Amino acid sequence: VDNTGANRFKYSLLLTQVVDKHEYVQGGVQINLKGREGQSEREISLTELDVSRKDAIRFRFKYFQNIDGELTLPQGFEPREVVIVAQSSGQNAQRLEKKFDWQLKGG
Questions:
Q1: Buried (b) or exposed (e) across 27-49, using 16+ Cβ within 10 A?
Q2: Fewer Cβ in 10 A, N or C end of the chain?
Q3: Cα 83 from chain centroid?
Q4: 96/58 Cα distance (integer angstroms)
């Protein structure tokens, strides 16, 4: 995540497939930010923070896919954690959930 000022941040997510036999994998990704707003804990979906993403993030790739964009945090929201849930569809459907501390690069 890179800070571009005024509570706006650029983000980038790289999805990869680490298998011997590469076949197309497809599904959806949900990204949520957990943090604090005033005295309350709050979780916000990326679709609420990135005006260019009105729908869920879909993926379809054989080797890798990069997903990037820009989000704007609400005034007074202090993010602490990023939660990413990737759910593939099809015969060998899998669900993968990862949590990361909120970290900034470049400022």
A1: bebebbbebeeeeeeeebebbeb
A2: C
A3: 7
A4: 14
Two tokens at 100? 């990361």
What is the per-residue pLDDT across 41-90, written as a single tens digit (0 to 9) for each? 999 999 899 988 877 899 999 989 999 999 999 999 999 999 999 999 98
Cβ atoms of residues 45 and 35 within 8 Å: no
The angle formed by the CA atoms of residues 75, 106 and 3, to the nearest 5 degrees, is 20
Task: Spell out the residues 6+ positions from residue 93 whose beta carbon is closer than 8 angstroms to its own.
Answer: 27, 87
The pTM of the full predicted model, rounded to 2 decimals, is 0.81
CA nearest neighbour of 29 among 68, 84, 83, 72 = 84
Which of the two residues, 36 and 107, has the higher pLDDT score? 36
Cα separation of 56 and 60, whole Å?
13
